[in-house]
Each structure stands twice: as C-alpha cells, then as structure tokens.
Amino acid sequence: MRHLPVSRRALLGGGVALGTAALLAGCGTETAPAGARLLRPGDPGYDAAVSSFNLNQIPRPGTVVQARTADDVRTAVGDAAARRAPVGVLATGHQPSSPIGEDAVLITTRAMRGVTINAGRRVARVEAGALWGHTLTAALQQQLVPLHGSTGTVGVVGYTLGGGLSPLLGRVHGYAADHVLAIDVVGADGELRTVTASSDPELFFGLRGGKSNFGIVTAMEFGLFPVPPLYGGAIMFDGADGARVLHTYREWVRTVPETMSSSVALLRLPDLPQVPEPLRGKLVANVRIAFTGPASEAAALIAPLRAAATPLRDQVAQMPWSGYAAIHSDPTSPTPAYERTALLRDLSEDAVDALLAAAGPDAPAPVTAVEIRHLGGALARPPQAESAVSHRDAAFTLFIAGVGGPEQAGSLKEAAAGIVRAMQPWSTGGMYVNFMNTDDTSPESVRQAYRPEVYGRLLALKKRVDPDNMFRLNHNIVD
Ligand SMILES: Cc1cc2nc3c(=O)[nH]c(=O)nc-3n(C[C@H](O)[C@H](O)[C@H](O)COP(=O)(O)OP(=O)(O)OC[C@H]3O[C@@H](n4cnc5c(N)ncnc54)[C@H](O)[C@@H]3O)c2cc1C
User: Which Pfam families does the annotation name (predicted)?
Assistant: First the structure.
C-alpha cells in the first residue's frame, strides 16, 4: 500500500500536490501542476477547504484531500484504507450527517466540476463536484433540462445519490436517480469502476439511494429532457390566512395533473431590511408552483389557490427555465440551520389542523420554514432499473428548517421535533434520505429511509463492498 508522502514542512508551505508520479517517487512537491492538495488542521487553506453550506456542522478531519481527478480519489481512498481511517466526502456541505473528526480523511470534490452534454444522446456527464447551477446552464444551451432540485448551489452527485426530488419535473419523470446511466465510483478496495445496470446490478441498485455508503463517486452520467414551458413562481399569503390557504391547498392538490408540481411552506421571514415590505418580519404561507404543461391551462388550474385569500405577493407567471430558482428562493449563501423531516401518506383536514397548531400563526415554534412538498405522479412509479430509493407511496414530504447557530440549537431542535411528533399520525414512518440531517443519523433513523427489504439488500451489499465500513461518515447503513 502506498502512503501519501506528506512532510510537515511541505504542508505548512500551503499544501502538497499529490500527483501519482510524485507519490510513486515518494516525495510531494508544492509546484506540481496537477494532483490533489493535501491539508491538515492549521494549514493555510484548510478552513476554506472544509467550509460548508450548513454552518452548524463544519468537518474537522485530520486530513483533507482536495481531489482534482478520479485518480486522486483512488489514491486517497487507498491510503485511508491502509491506515484504516474512515473516509468522508464533501462537495458543498448542504447535508451534514455524522461528525467528521480528527481520525477521518475528507475528500473534497470542489475542483472536479466538469460538465459535458451530449445533446444527440440527451445525456449529461458530470464530475463529482458539479453543481446543479452550472450543469443546468450547460444543458439549457442544448435546449435540454436535467431533473435538478430547488436551487443551483446543491451538488449534482450528492443530490442524485439520495434520489433527487425535482420540485419542477419529479412528478413527470420520477427521481433523478431513476435516470442515471453510469456511475464511476472508487470503492473501499481503492479501485475505480464504472457501474451500470448490467456491470454490477446490485451495486448500481445500492448507489442510487445509498449515498456514499458504497464508495466515492467521481463522475456520473444521466438522462436529460427537452425543455418544457414553465409557468411558475410563489404566492405569498399572510400567515393569518394560513388555515384557508393550507386547507385550500390540500383539496386542490388532489385535482392537479402530473405536470403541476407544488409545495406549501410556512415561512417566518426575518425582520431585516433586505426583506421587502409587506413581508418583513412576517409569518407567511408560501405556495410554490411549477407547471410544465400548456401555458393556456395554467391560470385556470391555479385559480382556486389564488382565491384562497388575498395574496401579499403573487409572482406566478410564465418564466424562462433559467429563472426557476425564484420559485423556492432558497438561501444562496452558507447558513446555520437545523433540519428534520418525515414522509406523509396523506394531507387530510386533521393533518392540516395539526400542522397549523404546531407551526402556524398561534404556535410558539421558532422554526424558519415548514414545507409540505407534493409527491406522486412518476415519483410513485417504479423506475426502469430498480434502486434503493424507497417509500414511493408517500404523498408528501415534510421538511423543517430552523435557521440559527448553536446558541439556538436547543429551542430550534425541540420545536422541529415537536412538529415531527405532531404529524406522526399521518407519517408513513419513512424518511427521504436527502432531507435527513445531523439529527437523523442514528441506525434507527437511517433504517427509516428504506423499505425493510431494501435495507436488507443494502446491508448485504455493504458487507460485500465495504466490510470494514470505511464509508461511515454519512447516513450509515449498519446492522
Ligand atoms: C437549500 C437546499 C435545497 C435543497 N433542495 C433539494 C431538492 O429540491 N430536492 C432534493 O432531492 N434535495 C434537495 N436538497 C437536499 C440535497 O439533495 C442534499 O443535501 C444533498 O446531499 C446535497 O449534496 P451536496 O453534495 O451538495 O452536499 P454535501 O453536504 O457536500 O454532501 C452530502 C452527502 O452527499 C453524498 N455525496 C456527495 N458527493 C458524493 C460523492 N462524490 N460520492 C459519494 N457520495 C457523495 C455524501 O453522502 C455526502 O455526505 C436541498 C438541500 C438544501 C440545503
């Protein structure tokens, strides 16, 4: 086994370039043009390398490998295996899970952002660190769209390995993971393989839904779709009208076609100058719409929602696809947040009442956002190549985010847990793995992300491809 040749002197000089040639020669060099950079705590660049979108759990690994190529990832995993060190992966830090501490090797993929679009095949190939923002831009240049999420700052690979729930096209085409064609992954044995439905069906099954439990993905190929028309945006209602809006929404959502994607969120907007009046400092009920059917049908379909109460702001209109991020207006810069989630089988009258009691205008809950996202359509249908993405029978996701730092952790976590408890009677008992966070890392919670038979298969796969559980710094599949 090779060890990364890291001298303290070289590290203090700003990091070591780990080209394969340099490794084999047994000496790192700061001037090598290519190769991963290796950093330790205290090194210049270490803090930037481990910086994360969620500021509440910053990794503090003993070793950071800033990978530039698949070969860098292979070398880093091989070295960690020799030292029996756990291996984590960081693209953006949108989804912290198990703490990443001194004993760990953290592979960062931010220098691996290549995106190639094959317009003829309608296929994208992205490197491990590609973000949805620039992947979408590249696809749109060819009049194609991927099954991206609500914001461009999320990593394509992490999102897709957890399922990938597009709030624009999921109900039409299913999960992003359903359209993956090939995955390049470095396994616990340090080997780089291209995994497809025919090369290793069980590993292909597990990777799509199992996140980083089976290796570090270096690149991925997936299908793209012609760009449909988009009629979308957000309608903001005063929180005081929350009951009328949510009850209208739960009835309306049963009637809509698969081309209508939507969510409703109770948002506590901060009392800050950057929030325009009349929204500043308010609790609002925010309905998000993405309709990808004929524009001529859009206004009539949305009319019942618009009539639920007098909107504070209504920005739903025909829009270019590139403007999609305005539908959800997710934060675009790093934020401290605590998150919880559940899957709901139904949004009945009682369920809405329970949600309003726990998170509505009269509830003391200090959480920032409580979102109900409509599932169904193609998300409920089995994919062509089966995958570990489970709970396709769920009708809605529940997602709760409390923005605040460690000093507010107690109250935010307690409030979020209270909302999850209040919605328990309508829960499927499952969870959507991409929405799970630091408080859902226990073995019991991780089991909830998968159907029991899927979890059994994932456990067997884990024993086959990662028997020492090297890839455990995640929502970990364990016995
Ligand atoms: C504001 C916001 C909006 C979101 N919107 C959506 C949405 O619309 N739909 C949806 O489905 N999800 C959404 N998510 C959840 C998102 O999909 C997950 O947080 C996802 O894990 C982010 O991946 P990342 O690589 O950006 O994050 P990171 O925190 O860097 O990675 C998270 C995990 O992904 C896995 N991973 C990342 N890269 C690799 C790799 N190269 N190899 C193996 N495993 C890897 C690892 O398990 C890693 O721990 C959203 C999250 C946020 C915070």
Answer: BBE, FAD_binding_4
Ligand 1 atom at minimal distance to the Cα of residue 216: 42
pLDDT at 25: 26
Say how far apart CA 9 and CA 356 lie, in whole Å: 59
Measured from the CB, is residue 67 less than 6 Å from ligand 1? no
Q: Reply yes or no: is the peptide bond before residue 201 cis, omega within 30 of 0.
A: no
Tokens standing for residue 160: 């897709």
Assigned CATH for 8-108: 3.30.43.10
Distance from Cα 436 to the centre of ligand 1, integer Å: 10
Does the CB atom of residue 128 touch ligand 1 within 6 A?
A: yes
In the chain, what are the domain boundaries? 8-108, 115-226+449-465, 230-437
Instruction: Give the fold, CATH level 3, of 115-226+449-465.
Output: 3.30.465
Ligand 1 contact, 161 CB (< 6 A) = yes
Q: Which two tokens stand for residue 201?
A: 């069906």
Would the CB of 157 count as within 6 Å of ligand 1? yes
**458 vs 88, 110, 390, 433, 463, CA distance in Å?**
19, 28, 12, 14, 9
Distance 337 CA to ligand 1 centre (A): 15
Query: What is the model's pLDDT at position 29?
Result: 28
* Each residue's pLDDT tens digit, 4-34: 333 222 222 233 444 333 222 222 322 333 5
Q: Looking at residue 34, what is its pLDDT?
A: 57
Given a contact cutoff of 8 angstroms between Cβ atoms, the answer to whether 465 and 187 are in contact is yes
Contact 164 CB / ligand 1 (< 6 Å): yes
CATH architecture of 230-437: 3-Layer(aba) Sandwich (3.40)
Cα of 456 from ligand 1 centre, angstroms: 24
Spans of the chain below 70 pLDDT: 1-34
Task: Say how far apart CA 202 and CA 217 lie, in whole Å.
Answer: 16
